[in-house]
Design goal:
The chain is mainly alpha-helical and 107 residues long. Helices cover 70% and strands 0% of the residues. It has three helices and no strands. The chain is elongated and about 55 Å long. The termini are far apart. InterPro entries: DUF7991.
Length: 107
């Protein structure tokens, strides 16, 4: 059975990864002019951000130690669920990039 600290640690990692992914995806959708650019940057850079946040935060809960019995389930909880939630938040809840007014670029 998982301890309270392990469960809290997983929830913390899930929340942080969801916020990081949602902000990154939103930034890519607003700044990039092509749909494929957004998809490629999201598919390549968000997992790299997940590696960093998971390594930084998992030291507190012992991600690879005795706190986790099944690593596959742990990775699904820490990476797949936050990524899916962040994509759905950006696609379904946030206004489309065409509706957002960006400041003029001065050169």
């Amino acid at each position: 059975m998982a301890s309270v600290a392990t469960v809290f640690g997983f929830l913390l990692i899930m929340v942080v990864n969801t916020v990081v992914a949602a902000v990154a995806i939103r930034f890519f959708r607003l700044r990039l002019s092509t749909t494929w650019g957004t998809v490629v940057y999201t598919a390549l850079l968000v997992p790299l951000l997940y590696v960093v946040t998971t390594i930084l935060l998992s030291g507190f809960i012992g991600f690879g130690g005795s706190g986790v019995r099944d690593r596959g389930t742990a990775l699904i909880l820490v990476w797949v669920v936050p990524f899916t939630l962040a994509v759905s938040l950006d696609v379904f809840w946030m206004p489309s990039p065409e509706e957002v007014d960006l400041p003029e670029q001065t050169r």
